[in-house]
Every structure is written in structure tokens, then in C-alpha cells.
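Input record (one chain):
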Amino acid sequence: MSKIYEALKQASRQKQGCLPLPQQALQHPPHAPSIGPEECHMEEEMLCLYKAVETALPDASKKILQFISARKGEGTSTLIRELAQLTATKIGKSVLLLDADRHTPTQHHYFNIHYDRGWQEAVNDDTLITSVLHKAQNMDLYIGPSSNSRAATPSIFDAHTLNGFWRSVWERFDLILIDSPPLTVSPDGLAIAPKVSGVVIVVEAEKTPSALVKNLKERIERVGGNVLGIVLNKRRYYIPRFIYERM
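The corresponding structure, as predicted from the sequence alone:
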């Protein structure tokens, strides 16, 4: 059993108003831990998730985290957006949220951003960085909308220029969050995975087959990505919550 697994499990037990997930919620693939309990309200869930990531990466004062799912509709974009906003407002970190879904970008809709270029275009031209990052109101949170393109995975994800882009934004932000497209939609996420501090897999509880999750985890690790764990999203409760609190 890995040290990361133990760290994440311990983080989930440090309550902050949260409870460990019943293990029956999802049949996990081997060695894929759950990050953050689902019994909490949204803010408490995000605090637990943030704490779990801090525990998994204790030596990294600044982090680049990628969130990805195996298929569409698992709530990745909503979850990462909530984490970004909480980290900026409640924890006081400077945060950059990059929408990496070139096929169906969504973050610019939520933050009402109108843009001409996506952040991917600044990878090859660092003079564009300030023009492709947009500040959210009333918080130290910036959004990098995605270029809307259905072309094959661009070469920028495999080039050294991506590392140069990371260095440029690294100087400004404490936390960089990447909203990746599902693996069934695009392989872009696999190209990004080995170039970040850690990868979090988002799974819709009781819906996503464990074989899909296991396959995604193995493919990320095969390309050199560091899988921190799994978030169970959209979990349903079939008995009142106050009973879960006593379990």
C-alpha cells in the first residue's frame, strides 16, 4: 500500500465536518485511493479535497494539478471551478484555472468571459500570456479559456515550450488547476499528465464502471503522470444524512 494512499486516507479522516466515504460507494481499481468525502456541503468538500492534496504533495509550495475523468458528464469542470474559487477566497492563494477542453470549453461561460485567443496559443508566444488570462471578480483567481479546436492533439503539449509556459505562470500563481477533457473525448489530458505535479481522477459515483477508471489510471501512469487519487462526485444518499454522520 503506497504512502500516497495512506496520506490521502488520513486526510479524509481529518474531518473539518467531513466523513470518510463508505467503501461500498464505488468499487475502486487497485491502489486508487479516494480523495475527499462526499457527505459534506460543497465548501467543506472542497476544503477536504484541498487538505488531501496538501497532504499528498507536502513538499510542493506551488502546485500544478490536473483534473480528468474517463467520460463526459462526471462533473469535472464544476468540481475544479469550486475548488479554484474556494482556494482563492477562503485559503487566500493566487489561483489560475486553465480550461484545457478544446472541444467543448465551458469555464468562460460561467465566468462570462469573451475572448479571442485561448491559453494554448500563449504556449508558443509568451507575449500573449497577459491577454489570454482573465481575472475573476472579487478574488485572486484568473481563468485561461481554451482555444476552441477539434484538431488532433496539438504539438504544444509534447514540446518543451509547454514547460516554458508553466515557468511563466508559476511565478505569478500559487496553484494552477487544469480542467482536462474526458479521455473518451480527447487524448489531450494524457499529453498534459506527465507535465504536472499530480493528477486527480473524477468519477461519478455508482455510474462509472470501475474498469474505465482503472484503464484511465493505468494510462496516465504509463505516460509518466502522478495519480494522486480519485474524487467520487455526485454521490447519492439513500438514507438521511444525519444517519451517515453516526456511521
